[in-house]
Amino acid sequence: MKPLARTLLAATFLLFATLAGAHNVGESDQQFLAGNAGPQIGPFIYLGAKHMVTGYDHLLFLVGVVFFLYRLRHVALYVSLFALGHSATLLAGVLWNWQVNAYLIDAIIGLSVAYKAFDNLDGFRTLFGFEPAPRLAVLVFGLFHGMGLATKLQELNLSANGLVTNLISFNVGVEIGQFLALGAVLIAMNYWRRTTSFLRHAYATNALLMTAGFVLAGFQISSYVLAG
Question: What is the pTM of this model?
């Protein structure tokens, strides 16, 4: 096996182990959320930011989204569409108690990562002769990402006392975490783009990204089947 192939394989398994628990909420955070009653703006902002920074499936999707975006206004547009989508379903999903299967939602989130990487590889135009609307795709997948967040909060049976305030605070924290993580990604990407290795390894990087998305989706679908 070639060195590059070995590296990609090892990284894929590492991502698989990480992605499998991307939505998990820590035990101490679970205890706080389950026992909380009343508005707690600061703690919920912190928890939202922490969840986004450690939510590798969300971040991988955003990496795919900004991979070939070179202008800041384009980055801002696509990230805003993603934020609009996941904010809407995060709030509506919890407040209106939308019941969806967490495994299936997380599988779709995994497929969103694979989708964006496949789009970056120009796969749709090459194989099917057309390219889906990228802005609409980011908005739609943002809706699924937000529903993924909502399913985890629903499992914690949050108190109705101060629920709206706490949800808005959590969502603000998610946006803060997304801003911080995306800032770090853009700094790294801009540095990488100045080197000759960027175009040489762009294909392999997106292939790895697509593989990670399929692995995450497969893990969630397998868990859904095993759970009956």
Answer: 0.86
Q: Are 19 and 63 in contact (CB under 8 A)?
A: no
For residue 139, give every residue at least 6 positions away whose Cβ sits within 8 Å of its Cβ, in sequence order, or none.
81, 82, 84, 85
The pLDDT, as a whole number, for residue 30 is: 66
| Tens-place pLDDT, residues 16-74 | 444 444 455 566 666 676 667 788 899 899 989 998 888 889 999 999 999 999 999 99
Nearest to 56, CA basis, from 124, 127, 112: 112
Question: Distance between CA atoms of 75 and 67, rounded to whole angstroms?
Answer: 10
Helix ranges restricted to H, 54-196: 56-66, 72-95, 102-120, 123-128, 134-154, 163-193
Residues 167 and 45: beta-carbon distance below 8 Å: no
